[in-house]
Amino acid sequence: MTIAQKISASMHGSSWVRKMFEEGMQLQEKHGSKNVFDFSIGNPNLPPPEAFSSTLRDTVDSCGLGAHCYMSQVGYPQVCEAIAGYLCEEQGVAISQKEVIMTCGAAGALNVILKTLLDPEDEVILTKPVFIDYAAYVDNHCGTSRIVDCRPDFMLDLDAIGSAINKKTKAMIINSPNNPSGQIYSKENLHGLGKLLEERSKAFGRTIYLLSDEPYRKIIFDGYQVPSIFKAYSQSIIATSYSKDLSIPGERIGFAAVNPAATYKQDIMNGMALATRILGFINAPALMQRVVSELQGISVDIHAYEKKRQLLCDGLADAGYEFVTPPGTFYLFPKTPIEDDVTFVQELQKELILTVPGKGFLYPGYFRIAFCVDDDTIINALPGFRRVMDRYK
Amino acid sequence: MTIAQKISASMHGSSWVRKMFEEGMQLQEKHGSKNVFDFSIGNPNLPPPEAFSSTLRDTVDSCGLGAHCYMSQVGYPQVCEAIAGYLCEEQGVAISQKEVIMTCGAAGALNVILKTLLDPEDEVILTKPVFIDYAAYVDNHCGTSRIVDCRPDFMLDLDAIGSAINKKTKAMIINSPNNPSGQIYSKENLHGLGKLLEERSKAFGRTIYLLSDEPYRKIIFDGYQVPSIFKAYSQSIIATSYSKDLSIPGERIGFAAVNPAATYKQDIMNGMALATRILGFINAPALMQRVVSELQGISVDIHAYEKKRQLLCDGLADAGYEFVTPPGTFYLFPKTPIEDDVTFVQELQKELILTVPGKGFLYPGYFRIAFCVDDDTIINALPGFRRVMDRYK
User: Fold this and answer.
1) What is the pTM of this model?
2) Domains in chain A, ordered, with CATH?
3) Is any Cβ of chain A less than 8 angstroms from the Cβ of B213?
4) ipTM of the complex
5) pLDDT tens sequence across A263-282
6) CB-based contact (8 Å) between B279 and chain A?
7) How far is A1 from chain B (nearest CA, A)?
8) Which of A202, A290, B90, B123 would give a disulfide with B168, using CB separation of 3.0 to 4.6 Å?
9) Residues B258-277: tens digit of each pLDDT
10) Where are the alpha helices (DSSP H) in A49-76?
11) Which residues, other chains included, contact B83 with Cβ-Cβ below 8 Å and sequence gap of 6+?
12) Which candidate from A43, A56, A118 shows the least CB-CB separation from B4?
């Protein structure tokens, strides 16, 4: 082997999302980008809010000496303070800057948290359908993933989770609003999980941490709310980013926040500062830290995503597709009319419609449509969606 | 254990650089920042070049739709192309954009490279005095560090390196200009290393990679040049950043470049793209990628650092300190007049002078002075340096 065996193996079984995204780029070269309907990747198509652009300009204009220097590994104190202030309201508990660490997006946050928590052979529970990179993050830090099923409505299946917990369980990762299902775990569902994790932590005599990945928290519809994870379980850590709500995924800016009630809060914060350094992040990008600190509570126009959801759901329901209407995110996760989701997605691809098979989320029989695209892309793709469905009716 | 054992252990044996930096902040609170002489951390004190500031403003002004979106994991093609163009001249070999990947600084680059290359128990050779975080990077990816001595003039000791290579050796990391010694490995020294690695790769039937960490490449004095690593050894990879030469370490922007002559170039590039994603970097920060692509060959005013070096070296030589005058970087690495460098550094600290003991680089009997500080800090600290030396004369 010339490179690491794991990396070599992962390349061959690469992410379906990226695979479809790359095939899409090839199809666009061949057929012209207007003729290809790319629903493969969650790359937000809405522009950042005007407040982002003006704050970015103002922040750059006011850059003085030291504006781009190293700072504390956890981030600028005033940035952590601004975020803590906003989180108090969002989570409904008192949070201080000492519980917040700035990160290179949510993916950076999760790697930093897992590096801080996991000993070799520790297990981390994930739920299907699963954003498959979570398993890679766990493996990066020598942990093992244990992946359990969800309920048919994509809520957490507490029985399945309860059965999966054992003496090696160190953490669980949840993602709500969920990629790919769009589901938001209810307050009852989350508090049930909190109670379960508390009981099992006691039973096994070790803390089981709950990591809540929440980058879609602000992309919600129909008056739904995302319940507070800090109220649901004391040993919880939030990982999130501004990628989706400010449409700036390329800038890699987010944060982790530790529940102020967590028993070993200070150890975790110190560990995350160290992990940020040795994993090579060093600190979250300086300029963007200062920019997002001014934009607490701001997001892109959610109504625009709501309209896209409506266009897509109406069109697909009319064509005979079955799905749970997503209360959040910009993903729809319909059933495929045949068991083999990969074949179905390939049929869609012949219509130049790019989606991701459920298999890519370890959930065959479904497929994901990322509707963070132009309205016209949705409208013009609907006849193709219908033609493919008609073949299986 | 509530957090990972390795992280917990590392926190207790934390980096001396960070330790002194943090003690410095406490001393500054107590005595006022003007009265503390902080030479502990390599946080460049020169402002970024004017070209950086104007390019940053122009780049922000021209941000259009998609300016902050995800892009390819390796970075924007036009950015990689601009860097490849500059590298052709710097390295004296033909390099294309396909050999360049944008990273979150050099620390991000090294983690991405090591994740790509290392299988469990693979060994990586480091040389003392060593930037100790390299060992943590190797450990992150389940490798083992084998640390060898340098020559008394801080050049590479090829005999020591030759003795350390065995069938488990997968890579070697070098850093030139060197932190903390300030030494630049000569062309002869590097070509000798290249020859050695080539012979041993053949003998053991596996490629030994050479990772060259070069963030101080532009901070050189007295007409010294940093030789091309790509010419010295075919299986080489450069990791670097714009942190030091543009004074923007907080922005986390750098790149890795694979030698176009490397045998498994394409595997390495594909592996690094994957590693960038799964380690949680996803991609280097979008805006800063575009900014640095416009600033190829630009750097802060090196003469300002040269003046600081002169002030410091003249003053310390006069006080009786012994050192190799550094041809590059903003570090000086003098001998301590007593064997116990930690005690000596503590004595300096009583004079409110903060430096880092050689022990922090696994090289006791020396100490590091980061002279990327105001001229006045150097001038005003010299009497204290003299007083402490006088006690040991």
Assistant:
1) 0.97
2) 5-48+300-392 (3.90.1150.10), 50-293 (3.40.640.10)
3) no
4) 0.96
5) 999 999 999 999 999 999 99
6) yes
7) 8
8) B123
9) 999 999 999 999 999 999 99
10) 50-61
11) B97, B100, B255, B257, B293, B296
12) A118
